Q: What sequence folds into this?
């Protein structure tokens, strides 16, 4: 396995006592897969992503990439957030180069590498534009190009399309599938959008809440991955099964607290 999460739990100390956010999380991800973790608020999705990114450490358990335990952030993991986190005073080229600059990559090399990935995401002609001159979808493409420019082994995505309108989101979904197929990069994305997860991923980990646990692993086999597949009965079956699972566990979580 390429990305391994073993018996991971995360607790936080609060005034009310010990808060268990994640409990006994186990996931196995092969190189080149597109994996989504789906759950409602309170399922610990963002906390889980922070453990993989090395931005936080588990209370118990561990995360490994290619057999190496993660203890801190590293260039082997690229991160894309919901809000684009672009620097408004930098143009598209400069934003894309920024991570490479922090790594000490020489100017000529980082310019070439950033330019290559701007071409991959279709934004070469906007290289000198400022973020304020771009649409929401274009800003997110810049953020993706910046993450890819460091040539990470894994692309981590934190609800990256949650702030986009429906039409732009659909366009970005098709863009991501094309990008994934062309680069063969491993992608791990968290989302609360069930249809998004079914459309994009090879496999889905459904997370229950309070504490966040893996309730089900679903393998997704669609006949094709274009927007028309959303009208296909197999897409509806996956979506309905996942929504019912999350709804049922959401009710159980509420009942446990009541």
A:
């Amino acid at each position: 396995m390429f990305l391994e999460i073993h018996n991971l739990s995360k607790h936080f100390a609060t005034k009310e006592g010990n808060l268990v956010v994640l409990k006994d999380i186990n996931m196995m991800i092969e190189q080149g897969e597109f994996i989504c973790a789906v759950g409602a608020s309170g399922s610990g999705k963002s906390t889980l992503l922070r453990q993989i990114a090395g931005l936080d450490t588990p209370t118990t358990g561990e995360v490994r990439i290619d057999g190496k335990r993660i203890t801190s952030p590293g260039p082997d993991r690229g991160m894309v957030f919901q809000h684009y986190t672009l620097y408004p005073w930098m143009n598209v080229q400069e934003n894309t180069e920024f991570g490479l600059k922090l790594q000490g990559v020489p100017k000529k090399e980082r310019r070439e590498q950033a330019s290559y990935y701007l071409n991959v995401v279709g934004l070469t002609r906007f290289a000198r534009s400022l973020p304020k001159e771009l649409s929401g979808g274009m800003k997110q493409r810049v953020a993706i190009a910046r993450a890819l420019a460091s040539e990470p082994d894994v692309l981590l995505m934190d609800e990256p399309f949650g702030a986009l309108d429906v039409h732009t989101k659909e366009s970005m979904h098709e863009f991501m599938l094309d990008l994934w197929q062309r680069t063969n990069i491993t992608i791990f994305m968290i989302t609360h959008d069930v249809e998004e997860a079914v459309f994009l991923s090879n496999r889905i980990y459904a997370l229950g809440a309070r504490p966040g646990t893996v309730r089900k692993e679903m393998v997704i086999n669609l006949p094709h991955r274009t927007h028309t597949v959303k009208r296909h009965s197999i897409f509806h079956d996956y979506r309905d099964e996942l929504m019912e699972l999350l709804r049922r566990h959401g009710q159980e979580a509420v009942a446990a607290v009541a």
